[in-house]
Every structure is written in structure tokens, then in C-alpha cells.
Specification:
With 221 residues, the chain is an all-alpha fold. The protein has ten helices and no strands. The protein has a single domain, classed as Orthogonal Bundle (Urease accessory protein UreF), CATH 1.10.4190. The chain is globular, with a radius of gyration of 16 Å. Required for maturation of urease via the functional incorporation of the urease nickel metallocenter.
């Protein structure tokens, strides 16, 4: 399995920081990953509950699964294998909204990245597109997965600040507490393959299903 073991360069770190910045136009701010329903239902009512909810999503749900898909895309030997990884990533989504979340962000990421750094980067699910782009730009796999999971968590913390609401400081405390888990999940998942896929964050999946018919919504998912 191809992995970069040398220290990343400043240019590599900064490129990933740009790709995963809130300013990168993938529309991440418009998705809550079902968190909006969880808040409305009283499942996530404060910073402690948010930390626990996101920890489960990272370790047992979409966080770990996305890191596995990212690594599989990074290691895909050709276009056919890459398409197979992407098809599996689409099939693995538990709801229509979660499928929208990963395909819309992935298509946006692929388009802007290919426009700025011309390359063959088709519209793929988000972690698959990022994994393929990282391979094309010779970026470290584990660092890419770490920063992806941190950006994913940061976006959901930002949504929670608006939804619960909690203060900005409490939001940063939650993100800081979860950063080591982002690192741990990324390191483990990038050493795995799609054969290791699983998801047991069932309430987060159910939340995304309920959100489809939620009466009042700020977010697309």
C-alpha cells in the first residue's frame, strides 16, 4: 500500500489547508449530517452531548468510513478501480440526504480543484475525490485523512454553534477535544481497505433520514 512516510513539506500542508478550508467552495456550511434533527429532537443539547455525538460519528460512522474510502481512492491503480471505490461509497450512504451531502460536495471539490490545478478529476463522492486529488498532487495519505476528518468535525461544530446554540469558545473546546480522535481514526482507517468497512453510528444515520421530512430546516442535511 502506497504511503508517504517522509515529513510533509510546507507546500503540501498549505495545499491541504486550502482544499479543506471553509473558504474552499464545496458548500460544506450548508450540511449538518443529520445534526439539525438531533438537536431538534433533544439528542444533542449541549457541548458535552455534541462531543459524544461527533466522537461516535468519527470512530464508528461516516468519519471512519470516509477515511477508508479516501485511502482506497488514493491507492486505486487506475480509472476502473477508482470508479469501483466511488460506486461503493455511494452505495454505503444510509439515506438520500447523506448521498446528496457526499456527491454534491465531491462534485464541487472536483470541479474547482481541476479548474485551479488542471487534471483529470471527475465528479466523485467527496472523500474519493479528495483521495484521488491527493494522489495526483503527491500529498501524504495519512495527513490528508487527518485534515479531512478535522475539517469534517469543524464543520459540524460550526453547525452546532448555530443550532444548539453553544458559544464559540465551547465549540472550540469540543473541536480541540476531538482532534486526537481525528488523528487516531485517520491513522487506523488509512491502513484498512473497503473490506473493513462498517458503520454502527445508527442514530446519526436515523437522524439523516428524519431530517428529510423535518418541518423547519436551516441545513440541506
Amino acid at each position: 500500500m502506497a504511503m508517504t512516510t517522509t515529513m510533509p513539506t510546507d507546500a503540501q500542508v498549505l495545499k491541504l489547508a486550502q482544499w479543506l478550508s471553509p473558504a474552499y467552495p464545496v458548500g460544506a456550511f450548508s450540511y449538518s449530517h443529520g445534526l439539525e434533527w438531533a438537536v431538534a429532537a433533544g439528542e444533542v443539547a449541549d457541548a458535552a452531548a455534541l462531543r459524544d455525538w461527533l466522537a461516535d460519528v468519527l470512530a464508528h460512522g461516516a468519519g471512519r468510513a470516509d477515511a477508508i474510502f479516501l485511502a482506497a481512492a488514493f491507492n486505486a491503480p487506475g480509472a476502473e478501480a477508482l470508479a469501483g471505490v466511488d460506486a461503493l461509497a455511494r452505495a454505503f450512504q444510509p439515506s438520500a440526504e447523506r448521498l446528496l451531502e457526499t456527491t454534491a460536495q465531491g462534485a464541487a471539490f472536483a470541479k474547482v480543484t481541476a479548474d485551479v490545478w488542471p487534471a483529470d478529476l471527475p465528479a466523485l463522492t467527496y472523500p474519493v475525490a479528495l483521495g484521488r486529488a491527493a494522489r495526483l498532487h503527491d500529498l501524504p495519505l495519512v495527513l490528508t485523512a487527518r485534515m479531512y476528518l478535522h475539517a469534517f468535525t469543524s464543520n459540524l461544530v460550526s453547525a452546532a454553534i448555530r443550532l444548539i446554540p453553544i458559544g464559540q469558545t465551547d465549540g472550540q473546546r469540543v473541536l480541540t477535544a476531538l482532534t486526537p480522535l481525528c488523528e487516531t481514526v485517520a491513522e487506523a482507517a488509512t491502513a484498512e481497505t473497503p473490506d473493513d468497512l462498517s458503520s454502527t453510528a445508527f442514530l446519526a444515520d436515523i437522524a439523516s433520514m428524519h431530517h428529510e421530512t423535518q418541518y423547519s430546516r436551516l441545513f440541506r442535511t
